[in-house]
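look at this one:
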Amino acid sequence: MPVLTRIDDILTDLRAYLGDDAPALSLPPAAYTSPELWELECERIFHRSWFLVAHTDQLAAPGDYVAVSVAGEMAVVVRDGDGVLRGHSPVCRHRLMPLVEPGAGNTAAFTCRYHLWKYGLDGRLRGAPYMAENKEFRADECRLPGFAVAEWNGFVWLNLDARAEPVAAHLDLIAPHFAGYRLDRMVQVDSWSLEWRANWKLVMENGHENYHVLGLHRETLQPFMPGGGDIHVEVASPWMLHLRIPLAMSVDSAMLSLDDVQRAHAMVGLAFPASAFIALADQVVWLTFLPSTIDSVRVLGGVLTLPELAVGSADLARTQQAVTAMINDEDRSGLEAVQRGAGSRYAERGHLSPKERPGVLAFYRDLAHALLDDGPWPGTL
């Protein structure tokens, strides 16, 4: 079978996932390599969707900021002097110099290192050397373009569309599944920023199923979160999914009031297109896979726990960090290999296992809606 390359062919295959009898097949291989599809995703998905970009601990004090890139578009989230979170485009309005590099830090103002134009934390221009001599320039009208930002139970969300529908309305739909975990009290004890050389859809397919644990995580996850278990998928909205992944044995926490379902499962919240948080006993992991290019993602994430447990054994903390790093590397190695396979001229669509169908097909439906619907995405509740 020849590899599909035309965008119309890929979209035709995507449309089939919207029907009641969706094919239990993976996406066509060209979906992971097509420049035309990538451009469409940038326009219809990445530039108008919410991404989980930080935990509030990273933005606790005035001037704390986190800078990211979403499909090549730079963004910065900062805590201003009034304690309000703001999102800006960190590109100087003068000669296009980025004001910050990807990462995190603290600053009293954003100063361009090119010509020393200075912007306040609210995005307004505070200084521009010698520009008073330019009578056509209005300093009071110069400010950084703004993006939408939201906080929800300690998670910080960013949307490049300043007029985006509030994210909390969707997150609140799955909030009952996370009652008892005390998300709003948790503190961050580990974090990472990694690059994986794989298309974002491959990464998200991986996150919507536990079947891959059989192979990629045989020693790290398989013993307590078996890949042969049947996951439960609940569609909360066109934008939000809840997954329950069964555990080999129940877990509990003396610090939390968990119900029987929570003790027997890893509880997952998945926000289209590329963010997730997973609760397991007294630990919560958050992850976002920010698309960088057609074949790479920036992986942001962190581990949260209760303050009372964050001051525990340093040796235990180092062990947990090592295990988390190992799991991330197992996923990275596997997905980068799949990306290479997607480029083969002999690559074809694969049949989905019953163990992966519920989650993967739900992701495909969301993807199809986002790329094919004419209306706003994610749409009203």
The chain has two domains: 7-32+168-372, 50-155. DSSP finds nine helices and 17 strands in the chain. The radius of gyration is 22 Å. The first strand starts at residue 50 and ends at 55.
